[in-house]
Amino acid sequence: MTTLSNEKQGSIQQALSEEERTQIIITNWIRISNIKLGWINDFNKFIVNYVIIDYTTFNDCQLICSGSADKTVRVWDIETNKQIQLFNGHLGYVYSAKFSSYHNYNYHRNVICSSSTDKTIRFSDVNDNQQLQVFNEHTQGVLDIEFSSFNGGRYLCSGSKDKTIRLWDVETSKNLHTFNGHEESVWSVKFSPLQNNNNNIGVIGGNGYTICSGSRDKTIRIWDVETTKQLIEFKGHEKWIMNVKYGSNKLGNIGCSNTILSSSQDNSVRLWDIRSGQQIQIFNGHKHWIHEVEYSPFVINNIEVGGFSNVICSASLDKTIRFWDIRSNKDQLHAIHADAREDKGILCLKFISLKKKNEEKINDNCDIHLYYGSFKVLFNYSLIKYFLINFFKNIMQSLYI
């Protein structure tokens, strides 16, 4: 269930405007932390180039993986900040890397799935550095991959420069269907969230599930997994779409259910309603392409709508990470500015709720780290939990579902 603020804290929040609360918290945070706003110097670096990030826990270890323009996939132990594995089987840039939920769920194996400009999707075992499978039916580079939320991650979808989306059966290594319709490269693909009443109906147990795709053709399309039919086409972005994300059904009471977030080279983030097929909000403020958008694990008390709203987050080549109230198209809540000397643009981000190894270190109910990847380095905000707690203390709440 969602943890909300108590009545006393709620009354304090309502007494101050959002702008006043933000300013007070920023002032206090600077004084307490004594560091530059939006930038924490005590971080750890993993030297990479173009990077994407994923996270998992395996045998009580907390791991992240990264894919890079150096054609490698690397695995890191978060607790030790040590690289524990390196895969160099790809012959081109690695555009996506994900821990395989299918192999973990069914075989308790720690396997990474990665896609590349070399037109392949590869599965590699982290423990023995063994390549297990290769999917090679795309005719151009594979830009994004995603495991199904249903059937234990047995199915994988992929988007490619060849303008297609493919649906794969990981268990049999077969291409089940190729979705055609986009007129340009498909940069982002996502499966719809797991349903509470999932009963594995349909040919592949995907009845009621959809795939969302974002393309260079400036459209977002939704496809039915079972019938393979295109259901919806969203138009509105003025340039190609870099990323799409489904809202969680569990967060319906705070503006996320039946929604899709998108980011674009038109410098905007947009929110779409799946039921009506209409654009709900547009968030402007970035000065360059927006590579990543995410529903954050935080909510804000939005007095205008008389309830709580989810906070969304976006990462851009303008070297900023910006936070927005999903129910308001007003100015951003806050922006983190990267170091111009180190970063050449932010390409991805991921919120990770880490296990506490030492309960004595922190007693707050928020232990969330923010990782992001740039053109040059992958930064671990090693103090981001303190940043988030101090900055968002009185205006945001962490979600526990």
CATH topology term of the largest domain: Methylamine Dehydrogenase, Chain H
End-to-end separation: 5 Å
As residue ranges, the low-confidence spans are 1-48, 359-366, 380-401
CATH class of the largest domain: Mainly Beta
Strand content: over 45%
Q: Based on CA inertia axes, which overall geometry fits? A: globular
* Integer average pLDDT: 80
Description:
The protein is mainly β and 401 residues long. It folds into 2 domains: 48-198 and 210-235, Methylamine Dehydrogenase, Chain H; 244-259 and 291-353 and 364-400, no CATH class. The protein contains 4 helices and 29 strands. The strands form 7 sheets. Strands 25-24-23-22-29 form a 5-stranded antiparallel beta sheet. The protein has a 4-stranded antiparallel beta sheet with strand order 1-28-27-26, with helices on one face. A 4-stranded antiparallel beta sheet has the order 2-3-4-5, with no helix packed on it. The longest helix is centred in the first third of the chain and has 16 residues, at 18-33. The protein is globular, with a radius of gyration of 21 Å.
